Amino acid sequence: MAKSALITGVTGQDGSYLAEHLLSLGYRVWGLTRGQANPRKDRVSRLIPDLRFVDGDLMDQGSLVSALNAVQPDEVYNLGAISFVPMSWQQPELVTEVNGTGVLRMLEAIRIVSGLSKPSASGVVAGQIRFYQASSSEMFGMVTRTPQNETTSFHPRSPYGVVKTYGHYMTRNYRESYGMYAVSGILFNHESPRRGPEFVTRKISLAAARIKLGLQERLRLGNLDAVRDWGFAGDYVRAMHLMLQQGRPEDYVVGTGQMHSVRDAARIAFDGVGLNWEDYVVVDPGLVRPAEVETLCADSSSARKHLDWEPTVDFTELMRMMVESDLRQTRLLREHGAELSGARW
Ligand code: NDP
Ligand code: GDR
């Protein structure tokens, strides 16, 4: 019998790659979608015709219980979140509700439908449903040690990071309290042509393409010295799946171990279209964050050893892939305009 999976956040970057990956492995896959006419649901259903949908919202406990009862999944991947860090300073309470209490609601929903009413003896894996939580390198925040691994302490620097830390510990607590197979992947930044245009790599790749095609003049960026460990989203969803296939539930750090700056990203992207980034990038102090995370870099040796996981795309290839995709899509949009609106990522 094929395994079944429920993915929250299926309309986002990671959700779409994970759905494709699980379908390729023979899973039956349901995506939780919210709202009465979510245009991102249409987009992902066109891209992945075999994906099924179930209604629900991380803000609504009852809807999660109903979704689990309808789907009866073997595995739940909780990727749904408000994922843009600056929004967490603007709407900290909403981010707490979705990204933090939302994790608790899903854990409770799983506990309820699995009939786990009492704490179990520690170490015993109870219930059928395996749970993955999308934790983040933003939990490390102000780092005192580079690279970071599963034993590095957390010092989050944004409300987003603080709330992800809550979800991380809540997941661990349900594992320890109820014996649930519940794990967190502490994932470092991962990007792709499907990345939202508000994130810096996609903002840069889209701008390089638009400037090349004469549709934009300047690119305004914040902190050019910020350094991240950027990988390819398609690689990272493989790690999520592997984390739910182990004999013992454990958390893992996932990243490439390579650091690059925002300046590097701009240079590679503009090089890719034959332009000099310094002629087009303008630093906008309004885009600098109230508290910055300067140097994040993953030590994924545990994932490499226990999950046999390796990244396959390096940073230069990643930026080039994104620029090429944006050039292609921008040309198509320019030529076919309205017919294609809503089709692009
Ligand atoms: P995206 O922003 O692309 O997708 C976020 C998803 O969350 C969307 O599908 C959105 O759906 C959904 N969502 C938002 N609010 C709710 C809600 N109330 N109930 C249910 N779903 C909701 O994020 P990514 O795919 O990049 O990231 C996936 C997860 O991984 C997130 O939790 C993110 O915080 C985390 N993460 C991401 C990293 C990265 O580099 N990409 C690194 C580390 C962690 P809708 O269409 O309805 O808005
Ligand atoms: P991040 O990603 O906050 O790390 O969160 P983002 O791409 O937004 O920022 C990366 C770094 O680039 C700097 N930066 C800019 N960022 C944006 N968005 N726009 C700009 O113009 C700009 N200029 C400089 C930022 O200051 C920052 O240092 C992502 C999300 O996917 C989270 O959900 C996830 O948890 C973490 O990665 C790991």
UniProtKB/TrEMBL annotation:
Gene3D superfamilies, A to Z: NAD(P)-binding Rossmann-like Domain, UDP-galactose 4-epimerase, domain 1
* Catalytic activity, EC: 4.2.1.47
Q: Which residues form a coiled coil?
A: none
Q: Which reaction does it catalyse?
A: GDP-alpha-D-mannose = GDP-4-dehydro-alpha-D-rhamnose + H2O
The UniProt keyword set, sorted, is: Lyase, NADP
Q: Name one Pfam family in it.
A: GDP_Man_Dehyd
CDD domains membership: GDP_MD_SDR_e
- Catalytic-site annotation from UniProt: T165
NAD(P)-binding domain boundaries: 6-322
Q: Where are the transmembrane segments?
A: none
What's its top-level EC category? lyase
Q: Which cofactor does it need?
A: NADP(+)
What biological processes does GO assign it?
'de novo' GDP-L-fucose biosynthetic process
Gene Ontology molecular-function annotations: GDP-mannose 4,6-dehydratase activity; NADP+ binding
Q: Which family does it belong to?
A: Belongs to the NAD(P)-dependent epimerase/dehydratase family. GDP-mannose 4,6-dehydratase subfamily.
| Described function | Catalyzes the conversion of GDP-D-mannose to GDP-4-dehydro-6-deoxy-D-mannose.
Read off the HAMAP family from this record: GDP_Man_dehydratase
Q: What is this protein called?
A: GDP-mannose 4,6-dehydratase
**Source species:** Streptomyces qinzhouensis
